[in-house]
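Structure first, sequence second, as always.
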């Protein structure tokens, strides 16, 4: 049994399927799944609770430095300053705030240490928008998931509907376009495909097909992926 810790980085734009695929791949490999988006949503929740304006860059950076955010190793639950906020961070208002907060350079720098520390004791599958390019540029495996804009909008609208909320396809499409622009144009850690990342276009593929494609890439780059443990 290998003692080597392995980092699998999965990046991509909103609606590409990162969270679902990363969770499934981590389960198959026996690795810890880390959803970095949940970290930003937890901070956004705290900011909203405190009434901090999403444009108050200094205060947001201070909150990011003070926040104690943990993710459950077994069930992926989200903890903010000791409180289980797993359900609260799924609120659409929190997600919208997180998208804006994640573009703040000071926030990204402050949360970088939290993300890296989560992989110090475990082999991980970590998903986000800058994992392979910034958080873990030396990751053992880098995957960039993408899909056609309409397909990503359809998936996001379905997610919103499944939460019992009304989802207007045109509004979702517009929101995704704005989010893509924010993610790609931000000065700190923009969304880019790392040069050594494998591009996986998920358009028209089933979850099972995407999962198998990603697992093939992982197993091609690390030996005995299934048997590797933290």
């Amino acid at each position: 049994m290998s003692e080597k810790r392995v980092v699998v980085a999965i990046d991509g734009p909103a609606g590409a399927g990162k969270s679902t695929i990363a969770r499934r791949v981590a389960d198959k490999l026996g690795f810890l799944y880390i959803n970095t988006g949940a970290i930003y949503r937890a901070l956004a929740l705290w900011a909203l609770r405190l009434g901090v304006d999403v444009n108050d860059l200094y205060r947001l950076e201070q909150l990011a430095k003070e926040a104690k955010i943990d993710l459950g190793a077994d069930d992926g639950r989200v903890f903010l300053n000791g409180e289980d906020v797993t359900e609260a961070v799924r609120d659409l208002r929190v997600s919208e705030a997180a998208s804006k907060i994640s573009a703040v350079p000071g926030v990204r720098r402050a949360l970088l240490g939290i993300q890296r520390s989560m992989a110090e004791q475990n082999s991980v599958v970590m998903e986000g928008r800058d994992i392979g390019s910034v958080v873990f540029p030396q990751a053992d495996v880098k995957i960039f998931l993408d899909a056609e804009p309409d397909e990503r909008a359809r998936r996001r609208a379905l997610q919103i509907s499944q939460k019992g909320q009304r989802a207007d396809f045109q509004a979702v499409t517009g929101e995704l376009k704005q989010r893509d622009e924010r993610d790609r144009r931000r000065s700190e850690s923009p969304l880019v495909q790392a040069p050594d990342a494998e591009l996986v276009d998920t358009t028209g593929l089933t979850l099972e097909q995407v999962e198998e494609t990603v697992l093939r890439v992982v197993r091609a780059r690390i030996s005995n992926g299934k048997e590797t443990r933290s």
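Margin note: Strands lie at 7-11, 32-35, 69-71, 78-80, 83-84, 124-128, 141-146, 198-201.
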